[in-house]
Amino acid sequence: MSLILGIESSCDDLAAALVRDGTQVLASVVQNQDDVHAPFGGVVPELASRDHVRHVYGTVERCLREAGVSMDAVDGIGVTGGPGLIGSLLVGLCFAKALSYQTGKPLLGVHHIEGHLASARLGDEPLDLPYVGFVVSGGHTALYHVETLSRIELLGQTRDDAAGEAFDKIAKRMGLPYPGGREIDLLAREGRGDAFDFPRPMLRQGFEFSFSGLKTAVALEVARQEREHGTPLPRAVQADVAASFQEAAIDVLFDKARRALAATGQRRLAVVGGLAANSRLRERMAGLPPPVEVRFPPVALCTDNAAMIAAVADRMLADGQTASLDLEAFSRVPLPSTLAER
Ligand code: KG4
Ligand code: ZN
């Protein structure tokens, strides 16, 4: 039996969670900053870290209170060491170090993407290993072969924009509320996915992705439609653009996932990260024919959270991969990671 406190602050969410045995979430608290960044239509790094400073103590405290647990019962403190915005990372990291210093509990430095990959193992029915892990988020689009939580192989990733970034930028271009990914999802339900024939970049080619060309094609179409209909576009046209863009992006994601399963010989697929909350992506991936088993974490554990960080820390503690109080934050760090040894 182990109990891990997870702390995550790599971008614009500050999160704390308590997880038992790497799977059972006792509490997961996420302090989101959408109101802080909404006026700018995107994350402003300095504002993100300042807001983290304001909320880090309260968020951890609330998590312990919600779980009805005191620090005495905690076996280890897992914290995101990278990748992410450096100022944001430093807030969670320094807080975790201070807590580790004060309580004597071991510190575990966790790779954020490893956290997303492990999120499929949270809950009552953790996905069995091995599996293909597909990280589709605002910062990352990458396919991994997850043999065990400590043996993870990168199959391919995006050469430019992440899929979620394309969703957010297109939403912003159409003047939709921030954060845009969820708005595209909602709007697309009113539109036709075949209204516009957008490109499917790198379809049927390896395991790499590219979303910048698709993003540009959609932006050009939006400009064309604005010349015809005025700005902002009528809702019906926005919906057709959203649905057609979403269909093009998901066609690519679906194709790569299917081929990654075939190439690795795996039949389990975990779709994780913020975009795994997308209703159309869930519908399409769930349509992969048996014996493929597709798993999406609950929506609250798709976007950034600390339960996934605690899940990885639990495995690291068991493997003796504790970090020293000299652990640094890394804006970029490859996976498989060496955070534990740094
Ligand atoms: O995993 P996450 O919280 O942050 C990163 O680590 O990058 O993912 C956030 C991303 C944003 O791009 C957001 O727009 C997108 O996930 N997102 C969605 C949906 N919910 C969140 N995109 C499409 N449809 C959704 N329902
Ligand atoms: Zn993330």
User: What is the first-to-last residue Cα distance?
Assistant: 27 Å
SSE arrangement, N to C: EEEHHEHEHEEEHHHHEHEHH
Radius of gyration, taken over Cα atoms and rounded to an integer in Å: 20 Å
By CATH reckoning, the class of the largest domain would read Alpha Beta
The largest beta-sheet arranges its strands as: 3-2-1-4-5
Please report which band the strand proportion falls in: under 5%, 5-15%, 15-25%, 25-35%, 35-45% or over 45%. Answer: 15-25%
Mean pLDDT: 95
Task: Enter the CATH topology name of the largest domain.
Answer: Nucleotidyltransferase, domain 5
Topology summary:
Elements: E1 3-8, E2 13-20, E3 24-32, H1 34-37, H2 45-67, E4 76-82, H3 86-103, E5 107-111, H4 112-118, E6 131-136, E7 141-148, E8 151-157, H5 163-173, H6 180-188, H7 212-229, H8 235-264, E9 268-272, H9 279-286, E10 293-295, H10 299-302, H11 307-318
Parallel strand pairs: 1-4, 4-5, 6-9, 9-10
Antiparallel strand pairs: 1-2, 2-3, 6-7, 7-8
Helix pairs in contact: 2-3, 4-11, 5-6, 5-7, 6-8, 7-8, 8-9
Structural description of this entry:
The chain has helices at residues 34-37, 45-67, 86-103, 112-118, 163-173, 180-188, 212-229, 235-264, 279-286, 299-302, 307-318, and strands at 3-8, 13-20, 24-32, 76-82, 107-111, 131-136, 141-148, 151-157, 268-272, 293-295. It has 342 residues and is α/β, with parallel strands linked by helices. The protein has two domains: 3-123 and 301-341, 2-Layer Sandwich (Nucleotidyltransferase, domain 5); 131-297, 2-Layer Sandwich (Nucleotidyltransferase, domain 5), CATH 3.30.420.40. The strands form two sheets. It has a five-stranded mixed β-sheet, with helices on both faces. Strands 8-7-6-9-10 form a five-stranded mixed β-sheet, with helices on both faces. The longest helix has 30 residues, at 235-264. The model has no long low-confidence stretch (mean pLDDT 95). 5'-O-[(R)-(carboxyoxy)(hydroxy)phosphoryl]adenosine binds next to α5 and α6.
